[in-house]
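Intended use. Records like the one below are meant for learning the mapping from a protein sequence to its folded structure. Do not use them to infer anything beyond what is encoded.
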Amino acid sequence: MASIRSGSSSGYSRICIEATDSPSHAASGGPRPYMPRLIERPTLIQSAGNKPKQIEEYAGRVNSGHGGVSVARMVSPEGWAEPGQRPEFEEITLVLRGVLRVEHERGSLDVRAGQAVVAHPGEWVRYSSPEPGGAEYVAVCTPAFTPQAVHRDAH
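Structure written out for the chain above:
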């Protein structure tokens, strides 16, 4: 159960959703006063592919214990490519710099800085950074990324 309340501050609307069926809510007789949690640094994750790629997980199973979502910043060098995959999770990727090529069963997309792409669960995709300078991007996976749920192609 959730309750929704809205308020306005400086002309902007804000909607807050409070969980009313959580153990902390029931035990205390009201909403638990949460506060923001600082994630001081990411955890470096080993990458797949033909060249080393930097993966910094900020939120996810490894760095923050989040099972429902993972957020990682990635930096891939020019010419990097990973094996194709058919993940069980949705992956939303925002390109910050360069070009990320996303191959799929019907073709390919070049996702440029300032653009994003959504890969749906069960959809085959293969990521690469073909252009000079490589690419920098942020990937958000729901539920969180796991090696067991990515289902990479056999080499």
